Amino acid sequence: MNKLLFTLIFCIFSIPLFSQIGGTHTYDFLNLVNSARVASFGGDVIAINDNDFNLSFHNPALLNSEMNHDLLVNYVNYFTDINYGYAAYASNLKKGTFSGGIHYINYGDFIAADEKGIVTGEFKAAEYAINLIYSQAIDSNFRVGINVKPIISTLEKYTSLGLVADFGVVYNKPKSLFTAALVIKNLGTQLKTYTSQKESMPFNIQLGISQKLNHAPFLFSITFDHLEKWDLTYEKPVDESILDPFSEEESSTSGIDKLADQFMRHILIGVEFNPVNNFYVRAGYNYRRRQEMLIESRTSTIGFSWGFGVKISKFHISYGRATYHLAGASDHFSISTNLDSFKKNL
After folding, report:
1. How many CB atoms lie within 10 A of CB 34?
2. Lower Cβ count inside 10 Å, N or C end of the chain?
3. Quick check: 284 and 270 in contact, CB under 8 A?
4. What is the CATH number of the domain that holds 111?
5. In sequence order, which residues have a C-beta less than 8 Å from that of residue 296 and are 6 or more positions away?
């Protein structure tokens, strides 16, 4: 298994890297949030070490032996007719832990028409990624993991195949209830392109920390997103409402404000409150999402997210809601269980 892991890492790292973000790459569905808990935290979590099987999707190093025979199913009611989800199962090996899962997105049905606008029929669009995760403890504090993801994308008559991988490392200090993590995501390439042009992957480098309080039922998480690229802003058409009335030039922003804005675009903040056993309330804030999607005249709760989780008998059930725009929000549902818990009662 160690030789296989080394071979996979060597092959993936031999592929050229791309740092483009925000609609300039393919397979962007890989960045969609499946877990209701993660959606509640603002969109990404890579450094919470509490045996939540869902978190291994975001950081393969969080997969551990306590998740042996865990089974999970996620479903997301996205915008319009789009829906997506993730299902996975975990099992311990002689060395390390392995899980297999499938991540899918269905874009719904589309009307096909020719260049004259005459309807010729219908077509579908969908994308799938297999998640093959392996993790192993280095010592009592460090753990590493890899997630190899073969991809198939079918958009009308166009089909593409790809292969990417995530690499993660986790440092956990149980006595201090502190966890830190580093993840390199979606490192890979297209094996078969839609056309003759090869497109870049949604590459991402993340750093995360979490801290649970000793004498209060709170857990705090901070994720630093897209460390490979400092400026996450994008060029927008000049808005006449922000033009200087005298010079007719775009109003300038101070250097400190611009620096703070660019820094905050990398930050995702989340908190979890556990008032009683087996019940959790969560909330998160995604500054970048808010800046990109808000309408100045009506900012509302864009960029904020919330949710809750409860354990009922042998099942962990979670719900999360993330507000992207005034037009709507996404609803996330997660359910997980451990199959060994059913055997104990037989």
Report:
1. 25
2. C
3. yes
4. 2.40.160.40
5. 241
If you ran DSSP here, which 8-state letter would residue 328 be given?
E
Pairing of strands 328-338, 119-137: unpaired
CB atoms within 10 A of CB 341: 12
Q: Give, in degrees to the nearest 5, the angle at Cα 22 between 18 and 25.
A: 45
One-letter identity of residue 337: T
Dump pLDDT digits (tens) for 168-226.
Answer: 999 999 999 999 999 999 999 999 999 888 999 999 999 999 999 999 999 999 999 99
Phi first, then psi, for residue 180 (nearest 5°) are: -130, 150
* Coil, strand or helix at 343: helix
Q: CA torsion sign, 154 to 185 to 86 to 151? A: positive
- Report angle CA 287, 106, 129 to the nearest 5 degrees: 80
Nearest alpha-carbon partner for 280 in 35, 33, 70: 35
C-alpha 341: how far from its chain's center? 29
Q: Are 45 and 223 in contact (CB under 8 A)?
A: yes
Integer Cα distance of 166 and 149 in angstroms = 8
Domain tally, the chain? 1
Q: Are 45 and 208 in contact (CB under 8 A)?
A: yes
Q: Which of 206, 203, 107 is nearest to 158 (CA)?
A: 107
Interval 112-142: pLDDT, tens:
888 888 898 889 899 999 999 999 999 999 9
Q: Which structural domain, as residue segments, surrounds residue 77?
A: 2-343
Whether 274 contacts 280, CB under 8 Å: yes
How high is the pLDDT of residue 233?
85
Which amino acid, 333?
A: F
